[in-house]
Fold:
Amino acid sequence: MMLVTACSLMPLAACASRADVLTFSGSAVGSEGAVVRRQLERFAASHPALPVQIRVTPDAADQRHQLYVQWLNAWTPDPDVLQLDVIWAPEFAAAGWIQPLDGFDQSANDTDFFSAPLRASRWLGHLYAIPWFVDVGMLYWRTDLLAAPPATFDALVAASRDAIANHRVAEGFVWEGARYEGLVAVFLEHLAGFGGRILDDDGRVAVDTPEAIRALTFMRRSIDDVGVVPASVLTWQEEQARFAFQNGRALFMRNWPYAASLMRQPAESAVAGRFAVAALPRDAGSSMPAPGSSDRLLGGSALGGSVLAINARSRHPDAAWAVVRYLTDPEQMLERARVVGQLPTRRSLYDGDRLGGLLPIAPAEARRLIDRAIPRPVTPIYTQLSGILQIHLHRALTHQEEPGSALSHAANDMRRALAAAGLPGGEL
Amino acid sequence: MIPSRLVRPTATALLLLAWAFPLYWMVTASLTPESQLFETPHIVPRALVFNHYQALFAERRFWMPIRNSLVVAAATTTLAVLVGTPCAYAMARLHFRGKTWLLAAVLAVSMLPQISIVSPLFLVLRVVGLIDTYPGLVVPYVTFALPLVVWLMTGFFRGLPSEIEDAARIDGAGRVRAAIEITLPLAAPAVATTAILTFLYAWNEFLFALSFTVSPERQTVPVAIALFRGQYQIPWGEILAGAVVASVPVIVVVVALQRRIVSGLTSGAVKG
Amino acid sequence: MTSGSSTALERRETRLAWRLMVPALGLLALVGAAPLVATGWESLHRHDVRLPWLGRPFVGFANYRQAFHDDRFVTALEHTVVFTAVSVTLELSFGLAFALALDALARGRAVARVVLLLPWALPTVVAALVWRFLFEGQSGIVNATLVWSGLAPREWLAGSFSAWVPIVFGDVWKSTPFVALLLLAGLQGIDASLYEAARLDGAGSWRRFVEITLPLVRPALVVALAFRALDAFRVFDLVYVLTGGGPGAATEVVSLYAFTTLLQDLQFGYASALAMLVFLMSFMLALFCIPRLRVSVAPDR
Structure:
């Protein structure tokens, strides 16, 4: 059936001048690049009518975003298939830059995908992107210094203090606290651990609630009074935190799954074989409401990852859809997990033992984490809201402002932005 | 303590040492394993590794962006000098009205923040089909190098005494012939200076190169370096190694012409 | 005023002048002015690319009015002006010191010049990365040196004032060479016999400096001041890589705010107004400097 679709595109391909190739734009660096190239070659082998070309775009999120904005705002028909960060889908959908996928075959509504990334890829009732791989925030902990990972923040603090006092580590807990998107993910996780949300169920801004103030105060105090988090985290992104943990200086780290495979190499890593991954802790005093999950004891994980979308002005939408379907097939996802260590977005892959040993944590545990992962707000103006939140969070953490006042300013600015955009949630 | 006649050279040496220190750090860091970059630093590195440089050419095919940068920078420099020098000569030597406004307008073109220039230019280049081509980079580069070229060459020509040229014209040579045969040879130092400035600009320019090229066959060095990094992972060793390697052509150009730079940069600009 | 034949000569000269200038001016008008016009036109509309249902209405100068009521813009402007003033002062001072030192250097001049030029020849992004590493909290040389000297280390990039230090150092490191070379040539243009005469008259080195060197190097100083001020006002890469505008918004400069508004918030209309404001302010700065530069670019006659 796909072959027929591809063949029917031949007349179309003949009259498209320079654009008679299908362009895929995304990450093509290192092992990720090798895997994507291999998979696209296999796809092209079974669909000879339309060759597929890879267009390498920068992996730095804001640079890729910049290029996409430029290209799509200029109505370029290529690239046909776009790799988007999961938080961009509503923005691109609202701007009319990517096309709804419901019109294609039924598999667009495949229930095998995790619900959170699917939800984050919907806008106004239509599905605009297919989840490709998923990232969740995780707690890395040293197995040679602890028997079990802490379930609460208090336990985490106690263990850190103990280890620092006994000179086993220099720092307790490291995370990404520079003024960028990663800070919002870290805050989201602390917030969830204290029972709060960024946007509540009605889409209203909820960052000035008492839970949020408690979460931010805890983050600040863990750096200053309690001293288990080094002040350097306020300038760190993922890599600096990884190296702090990898060089054996920290007891705990909050990071994405990518760090695990890198830290397993004994040549570079001082903690190879001496760390494990677990869910993030929560506040002892809060019970986090977890829709659809029986386990109330875990903290929250931020949901990250990438989705695949189709250019709204693509000249080969059907072929593009074929590529998207192929890349998100179970076989291809398994191959990515094997080669790159990225978490697949299909629930069924976590059954049995197909993923055994490929992921930093047991498949069942990973599935639980992803089920409970919290997406960042699904709105077209998310990057702007995040920018506002980043500034105020960072101001509170660097003592330019008190947490309460910082969050209240952030909430007001966010509400004003939503109101100016005419989106729900803007009412005070 | 120090003999008075050595104070100045010593101070100079110390100042130069301080200025060179970040460069020294850059080179040693490109030879250090990455995990060491986040340990306590040592002035003299403990161990040197070459795998960053190996990766540059084995995995990243770094020679291609270097080739692209050389082509684009050389073309930009040549065209900018060829187009800008006659313009500067006219502004310095010839009579016409509105000169100051024109000069101000020429300078004004380079005052808009680059980010605002990129989108409209991208649209234009796309329409004429110049995206991902050498001309697609050279044309914007020449345009935004012109203010500097025109400005410096105008200053230089204005500083040249006109008597020699006038003498040739009295002898019967046409205005243009006099300019070409007499003034132009004298302008060689200034031309060399302008060429270096333009070359450096085109070599290091990033935003236009990122936006107007899409394939490795046309991407320049700054873009290639920016593409090294993964989503979270940043290969600092390779980035620094790439910067060191990319500095080599620049150093060659600069060393060859550094004497010309000093005499050329200011000969017209400072004569009061 | 002039006889008929001079007018014909003038007209011929004007025609020749324009013929010589047309390629350059044509390119500038086509490729250089077009974005300016496009940005100016866009700045008169309200255009949020993410929300096409709001359309693209013409709003006149509303975006500009909004900018002046925008605290974040005003703060960014303050930051930028102070940064420009501090940076340029330091660059001129260091540049003069270097120029004086190199002027008196008997040997090693070539090496000194190459070392001096290298920071200027690096891509700004790489230079910013180097300075970031130098000021890194736990693994940076600067903190290591402080500790070794018995002083307390600090988290440079996390302090609202201390974050400016690597930014200013990075800018001064990168741009002083340009100033130094400009001033060096100016110094080399000064007639040595002037100094001789002054020394014979009994003037000490400080008096010689103030009464001979400074006035004669003043044109070069003005040139350096103008160039550097115009560039420092539009600083972007250095701040973006070093702090991203942080901590909080403590190091946000005007170009960075315009960039964020354009590419993060996708508010093209407002961002265009901010860009136009940067342009207009730079233009005013240039207009202020050009009369003082007239000494070098105005024609003889």
Notes: The interface with chain C takes residues 62, 65-66, 69, 73, 91, 94-96, 178-180, 230-232, 234-235, 244, 380-381, 383-384, 387, 391-392, 394-395, 397-398, 400-401, 421-422 of chain A (CB under 8 Å). Chain A has two domains: 2-135+303-363, 138-278. Residues 138-278 of chain A form a domain with the D-Maltodextrin-Binding Protein; domain 2 fold (CATH 3.40.190.10). Chain A has a mean pLDDT of 87.
